[in-house]
Amino acid sequence: MSFTAAQLAAFIDHTLLKPDASLAQIQQLCAEAREHQFFSVCVNGSWVATAYQLLEDSDVKVASVVGFPLGAMAADAKRFEAEAAIDDGAHEIDMVLNIARLKAGDDKYVLREIIDVVEAADERIVKVILETCLLTDAEKVRACQLVVESGAHFVKTSTGFSTAGATVADVKLMRATVGPTFGVKASGGIRDSATALAMIESGATRLGTSAGLTILNGLAANETSSY
Q: Among this protein's residues, is 107 annotated catalytic?
C-alpha cells in the first residue's frame, strides 16, 4: 500500500485531548492541521469554539469528544455535551459508549444513548468509541452492530486513555462486522507511518493520533530511502 503524505494526511484526525492542553498548544495543533491538510483536529469540548475560529477559512474540520474518556456519565449529559459542541461549531462528534452497560448486555440502553447523540449532532458525523481493549470479541461485534443500527457513521477503536489502543486485529474485526462502506476509525497508539498504513490496510478509513507530524515525516523518510 502506497500513499503520498497528502493522501495519508487526509485520513488523520490531528488530536490533542490532554487535560492540561493550553491555548498555545491548541493554536499550534490547528496551524499544523492547516499546513498539512489533516482531515480534522479533535479537541475537548471547551476548545471547540477556539478551533472553529482558527480553522474557519480552511477545509480542516473540527471534531469534539463526548462522554470522554470513560463513557460512564448519564446519557442526558452526553446529549447535552454533543449539543454544546455543535453549537460551538463542531463538524464531527466522537462519543464514548457506555462500556459497562454494553458488557452487562443492556443493548437497549446503549442503542438509545447513541441515538440521542446522533439526534443531538443534527446530521453531523458521529463516531462511537468502543474502547476495544476492555471488550471481548463478541462484545466488539455486538457494539458494532448497535452503532450501525443507531444511525451513527463510524465505529472507533479507542480513547487512547485506557489500557491499550488500536490493533490490526480489532480493525479487521470491526470492518468485517460493519461491512465495506461504514466508517472505521483506528485510534490509540498510532505513532508511526508503518502502523498508520497497517491500520488503513486492515480497513480503517480514519486515524486518530497525536503523532500526525511524526507519521508524515516517517512516510517521507521511507519514500526517500526507497530511491
A: no
